[in-house]
Protein backbone atom coordinates (compact mmCIF):
# COMPACT_ATOMS: atom_id res chain seq x y z
CA UNK A 1 0.00 0.00 0.00
CA UNK A 2 1.39 3.36 -0.95
CA UNK A 3 1.20 6.18 1.50
CA UNK A 4 0.25 9.50 0.03
CA UNK A 5 -0.86 12.95 1.02
CA UNK A 6 -4.27 14.48 0.55
CA UNK A 7 -5.09 18.15 0.13
CA UNK A 8 -8.00 17.84 2.56
CA UNK A 9 -7.54 16.89 6.21
CA UNK A 10 -10.26 14.62 7.56
CA UNK A 11 -10.95 13.46 11.11
CA UNK A 12 -13.34 11.41 13.24
CA UNK A 13 -13.44 9.08 16.22
CA UNK A 14 -14.32 5.67 17.87
CA UNK A 15 -15.37 5.94 21.49
CA UNK A 16 -14.66 2.94 23.72
CA UNK A 17 -14.39 0.69 20.69
CA UNK A 18 -17.52 2.01 18.94
CA UNK A 19 -17.22 3.40 15.42
CA UNK A 20 -19.18 6.63 15.03
CA UNK A 21 -20.26 6.95 11.40
CA UNK A 22 -22.12 9.79 9.75
CA UNK A 23 -22.62 10.20 5.99
CA UNK A 24 -22.70 13.73 4.67
CA UNK A 25 -25.79 15.81 5.25
CA UNK A 26 -26.93 14.17 8.49
CA UNK A 27 -29.19 16.93 9.75
CA UNK A 28 -31.91 14.27 10.03
CA UNK A 29 -32.15 10.56 9.29
CA UNK A 30 -34.57 11.09 6.40
CA UNK A 31 -32.02 13.36 4.69
CA UNK A 32 -29.13 10.90 4.86
CA UNK A 33 -29.61 8.94 1.65
CA UNK A 34 -30.18 11.91 -0.65
CA UNK A 35 -27.43 14.00 0.92
CA UNK A 36 -24.93 11.19 0.57
CA UNK A 37 -25.95 10.61 -3.02
CA UNK A 38 -25.39 14.28 -3.86
CA UNK A 39 -22.03 14.86 -2.22
CA UNK A 40 -20.66 11.32 -1.86
CA UNK A 41 -18.77 12.29 1.29
CA UNK A 42 -18.55 10.25 4.48
CA UNK A 43 -16.47 10.35 7.66
CA UNK A 44 -15.97 7.54 10.16
CA UNK A 45 -14.01 7.85 13.38
CA UNK A 46 -12.24 5.31 15.60
CA UNK A 47 -10.67 6.13 18.97
CA UNK A 48 -9.50 3.98 21.86
CA UNK A 49 -11.50 4.01 25.08
CA UNK A 50 -10.48 4.79 28.65
CA UNK A 51 -7.36 3.12 30.05
CA UNK A 52 -6.53 1.85 26.60
CA UNK A 53 -2.98 0.66 27.32
CA UNK A 54 -2.69 -3.01 26.28
CA UNK A 55 0.44 -3.80 28.32
CA UNK A 56 1.92 -2.45 31.55
CA UNK A 57 5.60 -2.70 30.61
CA UNK A 58 7.93 -2.84 27.61
CA UNK A 59 11.27 -4.66 28.01
CA UNK A 60 14.43 -2.66 27.40
CA UNK A 61 16.38 -4.42 24.65
CA UNK A 62 20.02 -4.03 23.66
CA UNK A 63 19.14 -2.56 20.26
CA UNK A 64 16.27 -0.43 18.95
CA UNK A 65 13.22 -2.52 18.16
CA UNK A 66 14.51 -5.67 19.89
CA UNK A 67 11.61 -5.97 22.34
CA UNK A 68 8.93 -3.78 20.75
CA UNK A 69 5.33 -4.12 21.89
CA UNK A 70 1.94 -3.04 20.57
CA UNK A 71 0.82 -0.76 23.40
CA UNK A 72 -2.38 0.62 21.81
CA UNK A 73 -4.70 -0.80 19.15
CA UNK A 74 -7.93 0.37 17.54
CA UNK A 75 -10.03 -1.30 14.85
CA UNK A 76 -10.73 0.77 11.75
CA UNK A 77 -14.07 0.85 9.94
CA UNK A 78 -14.20 -1.08 6.69
CA UNK A 79 -11.67 0.32 4.23
CA UNK A 80 -12.53 1.04 0.60
CA UNK A 81 -10.40 1.99 -2.35
CA UNK A 82 -9.65 5.72 -2.32
CA UNK A 83 -10.32 6.12 1.41
CA UNK A 84 -8.04 8.49 3.32
CA UNK A 85 -7.06 7.74 6.90
CA UNK A 86 -5.79 10.50 9.21
CA UNK A 87 -4.42 9.39 12.56
CA UNK A 88 -2.68 10.53 15.70
CA UNK A 89 -1.92 9.23 19.15
CA UNK A 90 0.11 9.65 22.30
CA UNK A 91 1.36 7.44 25.11
CA UNK A 92 3.24 8.09 28.35
CA UNK A 93 6.30 5.91 28.93
CA UNK A 94 7.93 6.04 32.39
CA UNK A 95 11.32 4.90 33.61
CA UNK A 96 11.41 2.99 36.88
CA UNK A 97 13.78 1.39 39.37
CA UNK A 98 16.58 3.88 39.91
CA UNK A 99 16.93 1.97 43.17
CA UNK A 100 15.62 -1.51 44.02
CA UNK A 101 12.82 -0.30 46.33
CA UNK A 102 9.19 -1.29 46.89
CA UNK A 103 7.85 0.67 43.89
CA UNK A 104 10.46 -0.83 41.58
CA UNK A 105 9.15 -2.77 38.57
CA UNK A 106 11.72 -5.12 37.06
CA UNK A 107 15.47 -4.83 37.53
CA UNK A 108 16.90 -1.49 38.67
CA UNK A 109 18.98 0.52 36.18
CA UNK A 110 20.67 3.91 35.91
CA UNK A 111 21.10 4.18 32.17
CA UNK A 112 18.86 6.29 29.90
CA UNK A 113 16.64 4.15 27.62
CA UNK A 114 16.04 5.26 24.05
CA UNK A 115 12.32 5.19 23.18
CA UNK A 116 10.61 4.90 19.79
CA UNK A 117 6.94 4.94 18.78
CA UNK A 118 5.28 4.38 15.41
CA UNK A 119 1.80 3.47 14.20
CA UNK A 120 1.38 0.49 11.87
CA UNK A 121 -1.57 -0.93 9.96
CA UNK A 122 -2.14 -4.59 10.80
CA UNK A 123 -4.69 -7.39 11.01
CA UNK A 124 -4.00 -8.34 14.63
CA UNK A 125 -3.64 -6.12 17.73
CA UNK A 126 -0.30 -7.77 18.61
CA UNK A 127 1.35 -7.33 15.19
CA UNK A 128 4.35 -4.98 15.26
CA UNK A 129 6.40 -5.56 12.09
CA UNK A 130 6.88 -7.68 8.98
CA UNK A 131 4.76 -8.44 5.95
CA UNK A 132 1.56 -8.41 8.02
CA UNK A 133 2.06 -4.72 8.85
CA UNK A 134 2.57 -1.42 7.05
CA UNK A 135 4.01 1.66 8.75
CA UNK A 136 1.52 4.54 8.42
CA UNK A 137 3.17 7.25 10.51
CA UNK A 138 6.54 8.77 11.06
CA UNK A 139 8.66 7.34 13.87
CA UNK A 140 9.00 9.56 16.93
CA UNK A 141 11.85 8.98 19.36
CA UNK A 142 13.70 10.38 22.36
CA UNK A 143 16.12 9.30 25.07
CA UNK A 144 14.33 9.39 28.43
CA UNK A 145 16.70 10.59 31.15
CA UNK A 146 16.80 8.21 34.10
CA UNK A 147 19.74 9.59 36.09
CA UNK A 148 19.38 12.30 38.71
CA UNK A 149 19.31 15.28 38.99
CA UNK A 150 17.95 15.59 35.43
CA UNK A 151 15.60 12.61 35.54
CA UNK A 152 12.55 12.98 33.27
CA UNK A 153 10.82 9.93 34.78
CA UNK A 154 7.76 10.30 32.48
CA UNK A 155 8.31 10.71 28.75
CA UNK A 156 5.24 11.26 26.53
CA UNK A 157 5.59 10.06 22.93
CA UNK A 158 3.30 11.81 20.43
CA UNK A 159 2.59 10.66 16.88
CA UNK A 160 0.69 13.28 14.88
CA UNK A 161 -0.21 14.08 11.28
CA UNK A 162 -0.14 10.43 10.24
CA UNK A 163 -1.97 9.89 6.96
CA UNK A 164 -2.35 7.32 4.21
CA UNK A 165 -4.59 6.69 1.21
CA UNK A 166 -5.87 3.25 0.23
CA UNK A 167 -4.73 2.90 -3.37
CA UNK A 168 -5.51 -0.78 -3.88
CA UNK A 169 -7.22 -3.16 -1.46
CA UNK A 170 -4.82 -5.93 -2.51
CA UNK A 171 -1.92 -3.97 -1.05
CA UNK A 172 -3.40 -3.89 2.45
CA UNK A 173 -1.69 -6.12 5.07
CA UNK A 174 -5.15 -6.98 6.41
CA UNK A 175 -8.66 -7.72 5.17
CA UNK A 176 -10.48 -4.45 4.34
CA UNK A 177 -13.03 -5.22 7.06
CA UNK A 178 -10.43 -6.27 9.65
CA UNK A 179 -7.70 -3.62 9.67
CA UNK A 180 -6.36 -2.15 12.88
CA UNK A 181 -3.98 0.62 13.86
CA UNK A 182 -1.34 -0.44 16.40
CA UNK A 183 0.99 1.92 18.21
CA UNK A 184 4.31 0.12 18.49
CA UNK A 185 6.76 1.20 21.22
CA UNK A 186 10.30 -0.01 21.81
CA UNK A 187 12.94 0.79 24.44
CA UNK A 188 16.65 0.11 24.12
CA UNK A 189 20.06 0.65 25.65
CA UNK A 190 23.41 -1.02 25.01
CA UNK A 191 23.77 -1.20 28.80
CA UNK A 192 20.68 -3.38 29.24
CA UNK A 193 21.45 -6.87 30.54
CA UNK A 194 17.91 -8.24 30.81
CA UNK A 195 15.02 -7.74 33.17
CA UNK A 196 14.90 -3.95 32.84
CA UNK A 197 11.61 -2.40 31.67
CA UNK A 198 9.87 0.88 31.05
CA UNK A 199 6.30 1.38 32.22
CA UNK A 200 3.38 2.12 29.89
CA UNK A 201 1.67 4.74 32.03
CA UNK A 202 2.90 5.74 35.47
CA UNK A 203 4.53 3.61 38.15
CA UNK A 204 2.94 3.90 41.60
CA UNK A 205 4.40 3.75 45.09
CA UNK A 206 2.95 0.29 45.72
CA UNK A 207 4.61 -1.15 42.61
CA UNK A 208 1.48 -1.07 40.44
CA UNK A 209 1.01 0.69 37.08
CA UNK A 210 -1.54 3.44 36.48
CA UNK A 211 -2.84 3.64 32.92
CA UNK A 212 -5.27 6.07 31.32
CA UNK A 213 -2.51 8.22 29.86
CA UNK A 214 -2.75 7.22 26.18
CA UNK A 215 -5.05 7.45 23.15
CA UNK A 216 -4.93 6.38 19.53
CA UNK A 217 -7.44 7.72 17.04
CA UNK A 218 -8.16 7.81 13.33
CA UNK A 219 -10.52 9.30 10.79
CA UNK A 220 -11.49 7.41 7.64
CA UNK A 221 -12.93 9.69 4.96
CA UNK A 222 -14.21 9.50 1.43
CA UNK A 223 -15.38 12.24 -0.91
CA UNK A 224 -14.64 15.86 -0.07
CA UNK A 225 -15.82 17.00 3.37
CA UNK A 226 -15.55 20.70 4.12
CA UNK A 227 -12.33 21.41 6.03
CA UNK A 228 -11.52 24.55 8.03
CA UNK A 229 -8.23 24.96 9.87
CA UNK A 230 -7.39 27.67 12.41
CA UNK A 231 -4.26 28.24 14.45
CA UNK A 232 -3.51 30.54 17.36
CA UNK A 233 -0.15 31.46 18.87
CA UNK A 234 -1.57 33.92 21.37
CA UNK A 235 -0.88 32.86 24.95
CA UNK A 236 -3.74 33.43 27.41
CA UNK A 237 -1.36 33.36 30.37
CA UNK A 238 2.31 34.10 30.88
CA UNK A 239 2.90 31.76 33.81
CA UNK A 240 1.77 28.65 35.66
CA UNK A 241 1.72 29.05 39.46
CA UNK A 242 3.67 26.43 41.44
CA UNK A 243 0.80 24.42 42.88
CA UNK A 244 0.32 20.82 44.04
CA UNK A 245 -3.44 21.11 44.51
CA UNK A 246 -4.57 22.45 41.15
CA UNK A 247 -2.99 25.51 39.56
CA UNK A 248 -4.34 24.67 36.09
CA UNK A 249 -4.29 27.43 33.49
CA UNK A 250 -5.49 27.67 29.88
CA UNK A 251 -2.44 28.45 27.76
CA UNK A 252 -4.10 28.54 24.32
CA UNK A 253 -7.77 28.65 23.30
CA UNK A 254 -9.58 28.46 19.96
CA UNK A 255 -13.27 29.29 19.50
CA UNK A 256 -15.56 27.12 17.36
CA UNK A 257 -18.95 28.43 16.23
CA UNK A 258 -22.02 26.94 14.51
CA UNK A 259 -21.08 23.38 15.35
CA UNK A 260 -23.37 20.55 14.24
CA UNK A 261 -23.73 16.88 14.90
CA UNK A 262 -21.17 14.99 12.85
CA UNK A 263 -18.48 17.71 12.83
CA UNK A 264 -15.04 16.26 13.56
CA UNK A 265 -12.27 18.12 15.35
CA UNK A 266 -8.56 17.38 14.91
CA UNK A 267 -6.23 19.16 17.34
CA UNK A 268 -2.47 19.66 17.55
CA UNK A 269 -0.68 21.77 20.14
CA UNK A 270 2.79 22.68 21.33
CA UNK A 271 3.85 24.55 24.46
CA UNK A 272 7.22 26.06 25.35
CA UNK A 273 7.86 26.43 29.09
CA UNK A 274 10.68 27.97 31.10
CA UNK A 275 11.71 27.10 34.66
CA UNK A 276 13.94 28.73 37.27
CA UNK A 277 16.56 26.92 39.32
CA UNK A 278 14.69 23.67 40.03
CA UNK A 279 13.21 20.81 37.99
CA UNK A 280 9.44 21.15 37.54
CA UNK A 281 6.73 18.67 36.61
CA UNK A 282 4.67 20.03 33.70
CA UNK A 283 1.46 18.37 32.51
CA UNK A 284 -1.00 19.15 29.71
CA UNK A 285 -4.45 18.17 28.47
CA UNK A 286 -6.73 19.39 25.68
CA UNK A 287 -10.38 19.86 26.62
CA UNK A 288 -13.48 21.42 25.05
CA UNK A 289 -15.69 23.80 27.02
CA UNK A 290 -18.05 26.77 26.68
CA UNK A 291 -15.49 29.29 28.04
CA UNK A 292 -12.03 30.18 26.78
CA UNK A 293 -10.68 30.14 30.33
CA UNK A 294 -12.23 26.81 31.39
CA UNK A 295 -9.79 24.13 32.56
CA UNK A 296 -12.32 21.30 32.32
CA UNK A 297 -15.19 20.40 30.00
CA UNK A 298 -18.47 22.24 30.66
CA UNK A 299 -21.81 20.48 31.04
CA UNK A 300 -22.74 21.41 27.46
CA UNK A 301 -19.45 20.02 26.14
CA UNK A 302 -19.75 16.82 28.17
CA UNK A 303 -23.10 15.98 26.61
CA UNK A 304 -22.24 17.24 23.10
CA UNK A 305 -18.67 16.04 22.50
CA UNK A 306 -17.22 12.53 22.39
CA UNK A 307 -15.32 11.27 25.44
CA UNK A 308 -17.22 13.80 27.61
CA UNK A 309 -15.46 16.80 26.13
CA UNK A 310 -11.85 15.62 26.39
CA UNK A 311 -9.63 15.59 23.31
CA UNK A 312 -6.60 14.01 25.01
CA UNK A 313 -5.61 12.38 28.26
CA UNK A 314 -3.50 14.26 30.81
CA UNK A 315 0.19 13.46 30.74
CA UNK A 316 3.44 15.19 31.61
CA UNK A 317 7.14 15.03 32.39
CA UNK A 318 9.90 16.47 34.57
CA UNK A 319 11.33 19.59 32.93
CA UNK A 320 15.00 19.65 33.97
CA UNK A 321 17.59 22.39 34.44
CA UNK A 322 20.33 20.24 32.94
CA UNK A 323 20.43 18.27 29.71
CA UNK A 324 17.62 15.75 29.09
CA UNK A 325 14.87 14.96 26.61
CA UNK A 326 12.83 17.71 28.31
CA UNK A 327 15.33 20.33 29.39
CA UNK A 328 14.72 24.03 30.00
CA UNK A 329 13.10 25.56 27.97
CA UNK A 330 10.84 22.50 27.71
CA UNK A 331 8.63 21.60 24.76
CA UNK A 332 5.28 19.83 25.24
CA UNK A 333 3.40 18.21 22.33
CA UNK A 334 -0.25 17.15 22.27
CA UNK A 335 -2.52 15.63 19.62
CA UNK A 336 -6.04 14.22 19.60
CA UNK A 337 -9.43 14.05 17.92
CA UNK A 338 -13.03 14.64 18.98
CA UNK A 339 -16.48 14.29 17.44
CA UNK A 340 -19.49 16.53 17.90
CA UNK A 341 -22.17 13.96 18.77
CA UNK A 342 -25.01 16.49 19.06
CA UNK A 343 -25.29 20.20 18.36
CA UNK A 344 -24.11 22.09 21.48
CA UNK A 345 -27.08 23.86 23.04
CA UNK A 346 -28.24 25.03 26.45
CA UNK A 347 -31.12 23.26 28.20
CA UNK A 348 -33.44 25.84 26.63
CA UNK A 349 -32.21 24.97 23.14
CA UNK A 350 -29.98 28.01 22.52
CA UNK A 351 -26.92 27.29 20.38
CA UNK A 352 -23.55 27.57 22.13
CA UNK A 353 -20.07 28.16 20.79
CA UNK A 354 -17.35 25.88 22.11
CA UNK A 355 -13.68 26.48 22.89
CA UNK A 356 -10.78 24.09 22.43
CA UNK A 357 -8.42 24.75 25.36
CA UNK A 358 -4.87 23.61 26.02
CA UNK A 359 -4.71 23.26 29.82
CA UNK A 360 -1.42 23.09 31.72
CA UNK A 361 -0.04 23.05 35.25
CA UNK A 362 3.40 22.87 36.89
CA UNK A 363 5.09 22.37 40.26
CA UNK A 364 8.67 21.87 41.53
CA UNK A 365 9.97 18.30 41.70
CA UNK A 366 11.53 18.27 45.14
CA UNK A 367 10.16 16.43 48.14
CA UNK A 368 10.64 19.42 50.43
CA UNK A 369 8.82 21.69 47.98
CA UNK A 370 5.47 20.16 48.91
CA UNK A 371 5.50 22.02 52.22
CA UNK A 372 5.98 25.43 50.65
CA UNK A 373 4.94 25.41 47.00
CA UNK A 374 3.89 29.06 47.17
CA UNK A 375 7.46 30.13 47.71
CA UNK A 376 8.68 28.80 44.36
CA UNK A 377 8.83 30.63 41.06
CA UNK A 378 6.06 29.94 38.52
CA UNK A 379 6.63 28.20 35.22
CA UNK A 380 6.96 30.78 32.46
CA UNK A 381 5.00 30.32 29.23
CA UNK A 382 7.35 31.31 26.42
CA UNK A 383 6.67 32.36 22.84
CA UNK A 384 6.80 29.66 20.20
CA UNK A 385 3.84 27.48 21.15
CA UNK A 386 0.61 27.04 19.20
CA UNK A 387 -2.84 25.47 19.09
CA UNK A 388 -4.09 24.20 15.72
CA UNK A 389 -7.70 23.10 15.28
CA UNK A 390 -8.96 21.46 12.10
CA UNK A 391 -12.73 21.17 11.77
CA UNK A 392 -14.23 18.77 9.26
CA UNK A 393 -17.89 19.28 8.43
CA UNK A 394 -20.04 16.80 6.57
CA UNK A 395 -22.43 19.50 5.46
CA UNK A 396 -21.78 21.60 2.32
SSE layout and pairings?
Elements: E1 14-15, E2 18-23, H1 32-39, E3 42-47, E4 57-61, E5 69-75, E6 84-94, E7 114-122, E8 133-135, E9 140-143, E10 154-165, E11 180-188, E12 197-200, E13 202-203, E14 209-210, E15 215-222, E16 226-232, E17 239-240, E18 249-256, E19 264-274, E20 280-289, H2 299-304, E21 315-319, E22 330-339, E23 354-364, E24 379-393
Parallel strand pairs: 4-11
Antiparallel strand pairs: 1-2, 2-3, 3-15, 4-12, 5-11, 6-10, 6-12, 6-15, 7-8, 7-9, 7-11, 13-14, 16-24, 17-24, 18-23, 19-22, 19-24, 20-21, 20-23
What is shown here, in short?
The protein has 396 residues and is mainly beta. It is 4% helix and 43% strand.
- Which segments are poorly predicted (pLDDT under 50) over 5 or more consecutive residues? 1-38
Count of helix runs: 2
How many domains make up the 3D coordinates? 2
**Main β-sheet: number of strands, strand sense, barrel status?**
13 strands, mixed
What average pLDDT do the residues reach?
88
Give an overview of the whole structure:
This protein is mostly beta strands and 396 residues long. The chain folds into two domains: 1-224, no CATH class; 226-396, Sandwich (Jelly Rolls). The protein has helices at 32-39, 299-304; strands spanning 14-15, 18-23, 42-47, 57-61, 69-75, 84-94, 114-122, 133-135, 140-143, 154-165, 180-188, 197-200, 202-203, 209-210, 215-222, 226-232, 239-240, 249-256, 264-274, 280-289, 315-319, 330-339, 354-364, 379-393. Strands 1, 2, 3, 4, 5, 6, 7, 8, 9, 10, 11, 12 and 15 form a 13-stranded mixed β-sheet that branches. Strands 16, 17, 19, 22 and 24 form a five-stranded antiparallel β-sheet that branches. Strand 13 (202-203) and strand 14 (209-210) form a beta hairpin. The two termini are 31 Å apart.
Amino acid sequence: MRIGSNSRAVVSMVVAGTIFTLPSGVAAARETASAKAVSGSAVEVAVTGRRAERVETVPIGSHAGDAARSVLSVKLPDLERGAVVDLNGEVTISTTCVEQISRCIGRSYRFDPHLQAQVVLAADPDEIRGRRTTAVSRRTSLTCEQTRPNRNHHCPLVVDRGRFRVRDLRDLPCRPDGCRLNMVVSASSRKAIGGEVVVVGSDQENGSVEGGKARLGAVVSSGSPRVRRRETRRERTSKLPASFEDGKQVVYSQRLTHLDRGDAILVRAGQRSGITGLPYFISDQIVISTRSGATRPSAVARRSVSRTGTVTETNGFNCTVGSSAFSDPCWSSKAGVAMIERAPTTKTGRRKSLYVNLVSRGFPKLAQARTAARGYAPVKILDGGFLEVTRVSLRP
